[in-house]
Amino acid sequence: MGKCENRKAKKPLYKKAVVEANKIQPSCSNSAEQESWMNAYIAAGGKWECVDPKKKKVDNPVESCPNNESIEVLLKRLKRNEAYEWWPQEEQLPYCAEQYDMKHTEAEENGKLSQQGTTLVSNIPTGSCSIKYSKFYSEIENWMKEKLQ
Q1: What is the per-residue pLDDT across 109-144, written as a single tens digit (0 to 9) for each?
Q2: pLDDT tens digits, residue range 12-61?
Q3: Are 42 and 74 in contact (CB under 8 A)?
Q4: How does residue 80 score in pLDDT terms, banded at 50, 70 and 90?
Q5: SS3 per residue for the chain
Q6: What gap in Å lies between CA 88 and CA 14, rounded to an integer?
Q7: CB-based contacts of 48-51 (< 8 A; 24+ apart in sequence)
Q8: Is the pTM of the predicted complex or chain greater than 0.70?
Q9: What is the mean pLDDT of the chain?
């Protein structure tokens, strides 16, 4: 088989390969970036097929790189197997309206959890993400300082 000039990722996309390709090529705004993303996707095990340019639809000549995800978080106290005086002995209600700070691949966000102790952050790029509950951590730190003094 000859060299394929027009490659297309087979669906469903292989998520691990998408994550790896997005690390190497996070933007796909021109043909060189799209080719770089596709090379990284294939190198990470993504399946592809050769597309005949004569059969390619004119109304959608280029598909954007798939790189947006959603994250839902829940913060609640869980029962611990070992007994610590500072840890709840029984499962507790979730932390309502707890302040959070989130850092992800392209931005930093902050907000408050819902009454159920959850939040849903949508349309964020695939990559790394961290979340910190500042009030939650400061309460634990303050408790530990009091007990250790």
Answers
A1: 888 888 888 888 777 777 778 888 888 788 878 878
A2: 888 888 888 888 887 777 788 888 889 999 999 999 988 876 665 555 55
A3: no
A4: low
A5: CCCCCCEEECCCCCHHHHHHHHHHCCCCCCHHHHHHHHHHHHHCCCCEEECCCCCCCCCCCCCCCCCEEEEEEECECCCCCCCCCCCCCCCCCECCCCEEEEEECCCEEEEECCCCCEEEEEEEECCCEEEECHHHHHHHHHHHHHHHC
A6: 41
A7: 48/7, 48/8, 48/9, 48/10, 49/7, 49/8, 49/10, 50/4, 50/6, 50/7, 50/8, 51/6, 51/7, 51/8
A8: no
A9: 78
